[in-house]
UniProtKB/TrEMBL annotation:
This is beta-lactamase. The keyword Protein transport does not apply. Belongs to the metallo-beta-lactamase superfamily. Class-B beta-lactamase family. It catalyses: a beta-lactam + H2O = a substituted beta-amino acid. It comes from Pseudoalteromonas amylolytica.
Amino acid sequence: MKRILQTLFLPLILSVTHPANATVEFKLRQLSPDLHVLYGQGGNIAISVGEDGIYLVDDQFAKLSEEIRAQVSKLKPGVPEFVINTHYHGDHTGGNENFAKAGSHVIAHNNVYRRLKDKHGEGSKFLPVISFGQDMTLHFNGENAKIWHYENAHTDGDAVIFYERANVVHTGDIFFNLNSLPYVDVNSGGSLDGVIAAVADILEHIDDNTTVIPGHGPVTNKSGLLEYKALLERAKGIMLVAIDKHQSLDAVIAAEPLAELELSYSDWLPQQRVTKLFYHSLTSSPSSD
């Protein structure tokens, strides 16, 4: 059953696998009285609704903003007060400008601000209006949402949101729950060791009843995140052996060391690309990816 669910959710991972005119099927799931997750095309969106209003975690792609607002309106009418970005990638921040123009205030780590400014320019509506360093807490809708920065994990600007009352955590792309290995964006400050360290720390701050929202794939729990950590550690061990044996990047790729894990891969992140990114991360060598 787990493999079937992961296969069903695989198309949610990123836009590059979809035709521009593809119809996106949205799915809402309630996690607590005030917290929902919205699956669509791109990163999973958390939606908080309550007496204070609405706020989102991530906003997928610009072309989906109106449809996302329609989905949110099923829960509560109105414009989200805040949009929290878990990192700067476009499948999580593409709707920033549209939501900002509608009246939402974007929150993200300082490095997300810097990278979005480099991409969109000073003064762009894509940029956060509130940025933070290590952590901040949003006291809204009767919830204390602790936003914590993990340095050099998926990127250099990753934020994880811990919902205290609901006992839910949104990991962003530190966690890919797709029977696959993650995209380690080494050119944006990411590292495999950083992802493993972040997952280990998240596990220290949740319990067996915590609901875990991954960046991509179905919602799971602490057990699912523990399995992911074990997979990351096994993949790292396999890669270190392959690097020691074969040395060069081309030789390691040719050896296909990760094939023994028998994982799922998407068109945009095939096994060869994962191998290349892990190699650069573990050898601290520059990547052209």
